Amino acid sequence: MDMVQSEKLIYEYEKRDEEGNVIGMNRAIDGVDIDIPEGSFVAILGHNGSGKSTLAKHMNAILVPTGGTMWVDGRDTKDPMELWNVRQSAGMVFQNPDNQIIGTVVEEDVGFGPENLGIPTDQIWKRVEDSLKAVGMLEYRSNSPNKLSGGQKQRVAIAGVIAMEPKCIVLDEPTAMLDPNGRKEVIRTVQELRRRKKVTVILITHYMEEVIDADQVYVMDSGHIVMHGSPREIFSCVDELKRYRMDVPQVTMLAEELRKKGLQLPAGILKTEELVEALCQLNSNT
Amino acid sequence: MIRDITIGQYYPARSVIHRLDPRVKIICTLLFLISLFIQRSILGYLIATIFLGMVIYTSRVPLKYILKGLKPIIMLLLVTVLFTLFLTREGEELFHFWIFNITDKGLNISAYTAIRLIYLIMGSSIMTFTTTPNALTDGIERVLHPLNRVKVPVHEVAMMMSIALRFIPILLEETDKIMKAQIARGADLESGNMIQRVKAMIPVLVPLFVSAFRRANDLALAMEARCYRGGEGRTKMKPLVYRAKDYLAYAVIVLYMMLIFFVGRFVPFHIWIF
Amino acid sequence: MSIKLEHLNYVYSPGTAYEKQALKDINLEIPQGEFVGIIGHTGSGKSTLIQHFNGLLKASGGALYYNGENIYGDGYNMKQLRSQVGLVFQYPEHQLFEVDVLSDVCFGPKNQGLSSEECEKRAREALELVGFPEKYYRQSPFELSGGQKRRAAIAGVLAMRPSVLVLDEPTAGLDPKGRDDILNQVEHLHKNTNMTVILVSHSMEDIARYVDRIIVMNQGEKMFDGKPKKVFSHYRDLEKVGLAAPRVTYIMHALKARGMNVRTDATTVEEAAKEIIRSFHD
């Protein structure tokens, strides 16, 4: 079975007015089927309100479906007996760097997860060191989190999750509150992690540049999956993306503009080098 | 900027006192405070002074820091001393002015009340100067552990304390930001009488509360995502373990208490102060 | 109507262990009606700088003139300055506190001492300016979506009818469409009202698209000050201080390096496309 799989997932909640009376139902997720193979890097894109974060919260059973099913590592997330197993196999990194760091010292925060799992003391230390090394923050181990930049805090959060040795890491808009350098730091750390640990990575984001190296990309809108494919396939559909309130990177945008003006460029250009190469090819042909 | 301010007055240094288990320090401080109140002779206070002096010296915390900690209570000290001085009627009258009466007993009592207060503050300061807030919370959690039997949620309380410690600088910084945002919209947080100023704080307090609740919610989710389910089954990354020096410290405090008690018991009555 | 800084410097926590010189000898002049962008790495002093414009922070040295008057002079009316120079902080929705949106937006005008009719009038104007739907005027600000909250917060500043609008990362945390909406609205405001707009941002692409002039801050000093094309031509220097040029500028440079005959000063997608097409037709 896949690492994460859902079938006709529905999530509804009641809409209440000022007095607390129920005035309707809000369907945040409306019949979603996803399959995320073990070891892959999958990105879920969508504008704010598309349901992507709600979907992410189903992956570690913070929310459970009101209709349909979500399986994580073969376990049904609705099963209360499997709750903590699900949470151990799917670790989550959240959007706000401050609001997920519990320890007053970096290494203590990274040890929080293993402490909860009842890991013996000496093993906790080993895991903490390995995790901090994996995200490149070992030298900050005795620092207070307050002195770190946003990108560094997120790396500590990622270390805190890896220390629990999950099979899959879900990153729920980890870069939304960071500056461009912080964003780069975090994405680089995630790529490095993939290289080293072969863990399944699910990245929820609205920044398209971050999904270029994903194996698969899903695009969500109004609680549905509206696009699904490889990054190249998705990036080729610029107009459709714009309709779903997504924005393509400038490289792709430029290629699209040039194509509209008649230049014969391949679709789905993702990187600067590709565009430069293609343009020079054209140039030498004319 | 505000995040640089550390909570409590931890003074980093390398001393035996710093390296003691926090439980030892908590218990010893408590015993020391008790000792100030159970004995009543000059000799007793002398012993207490020597003991305190030795601890301060061993802790390598500069005396001026410890004395600075007395600044906030100067008013309280003054008031207490003056009251005791003028309101004690026993003993020989030394001085008379209008309705004010100063007796020799009054002088004694007020002097020693002052000393008690001062030593109380200094003794507690040593504890906070040499123990990080984290270590203190760990220590308190372990010391209060027996209360679990009477259904006191010791672990949860300790967890709340350490989370509070973690977020106080963050919330302070946020308060600053919110205040600036409201001042930028023309809010006046400085002028006016008591009532006006309290009212003026509403645009700061409401967003702060909302933000604090939001953070608490996020944090709870993050903790659950990392499999936190209360104190059951948790192990500790930095467990508190007694070492030789801790037992030595316990021995020292026991000796001190015995001395104080002995002096209190066997010193002749007339050398008692009061 | 302009802002002028002369030898302005600012030191945090002077005389303590945390002393830091946040601004060093800043000289600059912003005439009325200009759309200025301020960029700089985190810690470069941009936030400190903009807090001087409305008198929230007082310079440690130097002078700041608003409309020719030194704001550090005796008896200067700071409160009035703050209604003329409106400052929108990052994540401004964190300042919302009132029972409903309309009341919150009235907060600024109320502090200016206006009558309640005038306050409501200005609040409604401001909310319309940011495209906030009327049906939510009486809703609690805490029940709105992120984008709506942000609009309400910006309206709260616009309701004071400032001549200068300073925005610190107004698009932080918004999705692409949300970012476009807010910036388009700001551009609209600028064009229609001759308001001076000062935009602090980390997005080079956004800055390149909207501003007439860029001020680059680095370690508390002004590093560059000029038109976007000129500033971004120094992209190597910008990189050294943790900034960058818009993506398209890099593309143009890469093409030139490969022998294509293109100008390298394009800073937006439209310019780049035009330039590339032009080079193909030659």
Automatic annotation (TrEMBL), chain B:
Molecular function (Gene Ontology), one example: transmembrane transporter activity
Superkingdom, natural source: Bacteria
Cited InterPro entries: ABC/ECF_trnsptr_transmembrane, EcfT
Transmembrane segments: 24-57, 69-88, 109-132, 247-273
Location(s) in or outside the cell: Cell membrane
Recorded topology in the membrane: Multi-pass membrane protein
CC terms in the record's Gene Ontology section: plasma membrane
Protein's UniProt keywords contain Transmembrane: yes
Chief site of localization: membrane
Key words, A-Z: Cell membrane, Membrane, Transmembrane, Transmembrane helix, Transport
Known partners and oligomeric status: Forms a stable energy-coupling factor (ECF) transporter complex composed of 2 membrane-embedded substrate-binding proteins (S component), 2 ATP-binding proteins (A component) and 2 transmembrane proteins (T component).
Primary role: Transmembrane (T) component of an energy-coupling factor (ECF) ABC-transporter complex. Unlike classic ABC transporters this ECF transporter provides the energy necessary to transport a number of different substrates.
HAMAP family the UniProt entry points to: EcfT
Family that this chain belongs to: Belongs to the energy-coupling factor EcfT family.
Name listed for the protein in its UniProt record: Energy-coupling factor transporter transmembrane protein EcfT
Organism expressing this protein natively: Muricomes intestini
UniProtKB/TrEMBL annotation, chain C:
Superkingdom: Bacteria
Cited Pfam families: ABC_tran
Entry GO CC: ATP-binding cassette (ABC) transporter complex
InterPro entries: AAA+_ATPase (IPR003593), ABC_transporter-like_ATP-bd (IPR003439), ABC_transporter-like_CS (IPR017871), ABC_transpr_CbiO/EcfA_su (IPR015856), ECF_ABC_transporter_ATP-bd (IPR050095), EcfA2 (IPR030946), P-loop_NTPase (IPR027417)
Localization in the cell: Cell membrane
Recorded GO MF terms: ATP binding; ATP hydrolysis activity; ATPase-coupled transmembrane transporter activity
CDD domains per record: ABC_cobalt_CbiO_domain1 (cd03225)
SMART domains, per database record: AAA
Domain ABC transporter: 3-244
Swiss-Prot/TrEMBL keywords: ATP-binding, Cell membrane, Membrane, Nucleotide-binding, Translocase, Transport
Entry EC no(s): 7.-.-.-
UniProt topology in membrane: Peripheral membrane protein
UniProt cross-references to Gene3D superfamilies, sorted A to Z: P-loop containing nucleotide triphosphate hydrolases
Keyword check for Protein biosynthesis: no
Primary location: membrane
Enzyme class, spelled out: translocase
Homology family: Belongs to the ABC transporter superfamily. Energy-coupling factor EcfA family.
Role description: ATP-binding (A) component of a common energy-coupling factor (ECF) ABC-transporter complex.
Quaternary structure and partners: Forms a stable energy-coupling factor (ECF) transporter complex composed of 2 membrane-embedded substrate-binding proteins (S component), 2 ATP-binding proteins (A component) and 2 transmembrane proteins (T component).
Name recorded for this polypeptide: Energy-coupling factor transporter ATP-binding protein EcfA2
The species this protein was found in: Muricomes intestini
